[in-house]
Write a structure and sequence with these properties.
The chain is an alpha/beta fold. It has two domains: about 170 residues, inorganic pyrophosphatase (n-terminal core) (Alpha-Beta Complex); about 120 residues, Diaminopimelate Epimerase, Chain A, domain 1 (Roll), CATH 3.10.310. It contains twelve helices and twelve strands. Helix 4 crosses helix 6. The longest helix is centred in the last third of the chain and has 18 residues. It is globular. The two termini are about 35 Å apart.
Length: about 300
């Protein structure tokens, strides 16, 4: 997005983000990609300025008070996001949201319509980043659309695709001890319920919640729900991950979010994340969420069609 703006408008921009996690840093270093990130605490520009939210459209999902204040002081707030969210209509955001499996895909389409996609893809690090964005957000093309393959076909002409995939898989093929322990603990804590021949698996774990949810789906669950207590920047919250191949997740995520006064985001109706703040114990949260899921599956009985 920064390069799109620079080449099309010449507008001065900064990328504000927390430092990438260890796995992301490993991948970027291995692929020789440098991203000029400014940490939010180091942003001191005075208004007026505009903010463009990328891959999210709900400022309430940020934990950092500094980021929230930076967004609040902006003259205008734009959002480019592929998630379905429960954004409050009163929030002053100009949003661009496509039914796409990846925000990267939206940016590539914007570049194409502006006539600068070919120019952008001549920059090899940018092309690598675009491929990484498509592959990771679509779970290695599991959620891909025909348009995703259209852009991947253009990207593979500019990059070493095998190198990208190998680099991504290097960190996945061998589980670390903490990840192995997390999976085993998650399996120990599973509550399993069958509703109209559909299997719900709900569990909780301290980390690796997204990977564990994917594992449960691969093991045969029709609906996987993984709850994880988190603490970032000194603030505690609960993260709830949803996964399903056939059950539409947006209505379920919305109901759970409203029940706990939280925020949510869903991709292609198949992968979702919910963020809530509550003092309730994990076991009580699990029971409440399981009941909501049970009621939901009972309600939509007969409406689910294999995809």
């Amino acid at each position: 997005m920064q390069e799109l703006l620079r080449r099309r408008t010449g507008i001065q921009t900064l990328i504000l983000a927390d430092r990438p996690n260890l796995e992301t840093r490993r991948i970027l270093k291995k692929l020789n990609i440098e991203i000029p990130i400014t940490e939010p605490e180091n942003f001191s520009a005075k208004p007026p300025y505009d903010i463009i939210l990328i891959d999210t459209s709900d400022p309430n999902r940020f934990l950092s008070d500094h980021i929230k204040q930076t967004i609040k002081k902006a003259k205008r707030i734009f959002a480019i996001d592929h998630h379905t969210t429960g954004l409050n209509a009163s929030t002053k955001i100009i949003a661009l949201r496509y039914p796409a499996p990846a925000t990267t895909e939206i940016l590539l389409e914007l570049s194409e319509k502006l006539g600068i996609l070919e120019e952008l893809l001549e920059d090899e690090p940018l092309a690598k980043l675009a491929a990484l964005g498509l592959l990771t957000d679509t779970v290695f093309l599991t959620l891909a659309t025909p348009k995703t393959f259209h852009y991947m076909s253009q990207l593979t002409k500019k990059i070493n695709y095998t190198e990208i995939v190998k680099t991504l898989k290097e960190g996945k093929e061998k589980k670390t001890l903490p990840e192995k322990l997390a999976h085993i603990k998650a399996m120990q804590r599973i509550i399993l319920k069958v509703i109209n021949s559909k299997i719900i698996c709900i569990t909780h774990v301290g980390s690796y919640e997204s990977k564990i949810a994917n594992t449960l789906i691969n093991l045969g669950a029709d609906l996987a729900i993984v709850i994880s207590p988190k603490k970032e920047k000194g603030k505690k919250y609960i993260r709830i991950i949803l996964r399903s191949k056939e059950i539409p997740l947006t209505p379920l995520a919305e109901t759970i979010s409203k029940t706990f006064h939280g925020t949510y985001g869903v991709t292609m109706n198949k992968a979702g994340g919910i963020q809530i703040h509550t003092n309730q114990k994990i076991d009580k949260i699990k029971k409440t969420v399981l009941q909501i899921a049970t009621d939901y599956l009972t309600q939509i009985n007969g409406q689910i069609r294999p995809q």
